[in-house]
Amino acid sequence: MIRAALIMMICALTGPAFALSCLPPEVTRTYQQATEAEAAYIAVHARLEFDPDALPRTDWQDQAATPPHTLIPARMTGQALTKTGFNLPFDRRITLDAQCLGPWCAGASPGASYLAFLKRTETGYLLALDPCGGMGFVDPTPETLRRVETCYSGGICAPQSP
Question: Yes or no: is domain 26-152 CATH 3.40.50?
Fold first, then answer.
């Protein structure tokens, strides 16, 4: 009985020390996930607008109450990807799916530029972000955008090593 109590005490003390381990976000890996998915995706380079107060927050006293998905109305304004680059005007309402994995929740920046892989749903488009990144890349570099354009046009599309 003392041994069981000691184990439970050690587990309770070490619990918060566990950290979420993620692969570093990598744009071609995400592109490949989108193209291999059963659902249809589109790539857009656009400004994301939403109410930041709607993002999930972890209740550290009751972590089990943190919802795994928080659906937030949002808008993206920019360009969708075509065979000739990010040049098709895109201005649509979307749903931002801010996901939590245990106590770790996705962050997002209203007004920021995103390279987003939007899932086509019956009701529109959905951008899934999780604590490890998900399907969006904030403030993509010109090189990041070129890599996605290269993938889309049938060029070399291999994930880069970190």
Answer: no
